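[job 4471] stage=fold_predict status=RUNNING
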Amino acid sequence: MRIGSALCPQPWFGPVRHPWMPKSGMNQMNSCSPVSNRLLLLILVTLLGSSGCTAFLAPRDPFPVTPPEPPLESTVPRELDKVTLPRYVIEPPDILLIEGVKLVPKSPHEVETFDVLLVRVAGAFPDQPIDDAYSVDADGSLNFGPTYGRVQVVDLTIEEAEDSIRKHLAQLLSSVEVSVSLVSSAGAQQITGQHLVGPDGRVNLGTYGAVYVAGMTIEQARAAIEEQLKLKLEGPEVFVDILAYNSKVYYVVTAGGGLGDNVVRAPITGNETVLDAVATIGGISQQSSTKMWIARPAPNGTGCEQILPIQWNDITKGASTATNYQIMPGDRLFIAADRLVTFDSVVAKVLRPFERTFGFISLATSTANRIARFGLANTF
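[job 4471] inference complete, writing structure tokens
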């Protein structure tokens, strides 16, 4: 077989002759000369050789694609990117713990009931010394035991109390020297302890008055309390701390599917996330869905409330922290109800009045039929 016949096969539809073409020209067109065959073969070999083996294996260069811009970093705090809350501001109904560090009444101090006095007596009996702190009893006296008896000191100054004790002991001792000093005042018992911040923003200090502390930090509240105590005490010093953080809270609102919403109020500690908030209510109920979001109030009424959608399945099943937001004071975590539960509740609410009406009508009709058939006496 000739090469020309292999390279130039006849078309399957046979030769085609145009009306203007002679038969001799058509015969020349259908035949392939050896020169043309060699030329065609040379062109094919040249193309294959220039392409090389990588022409079929190397991938094409992709079109230049502009890389997408990185997403903007969110400033919303979340599980692995929490923030520290600002300085705590005291508000009702917080509970403060106040302890007196230095509570010395202004001079001259008059001894009161339940004051504690340090009494030291030189010249007392060796086997019965007087060198201890004594509390003023309810009757206003100091009890030195059966040997020395009692001495009235209430409403006396410290110097007057010394003279009174010296005169009393001089009846038993030949030479006596007395020293009296105030250890603690009974008024300090009204300061030290737990103090509730009232609705008016004040804490009650007993006989020392009340102090307004709402809107203050701990340091500011301590300074305000010490300033109030200066009216009756000499250079007072107190320790103030917050015992119960009752004023900073968040809310978990669970939709009831048309049967009302359930609201849980929980105190804020500064470390809660969405997962912690759901854990406080024992998890998602059967009537709730996994659709939830955080409604964050706008600060100072600026009108910039935030709605933060939450991907619950990503948080629980995928350990994703993207939407496990940090809970802030005043946040409302809203958990939507399941649609089927809502639909069933709405249908039940709509149909229940009609069911009761039809039940009353059916009961009345049945009773009337029994009366008509069997008489009133045989009906009941």
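[job 4471] summary: The domain at 95-100+189-244 is CATH 3.30.1950.10 (wza like fold).
[job 4471] exit 0
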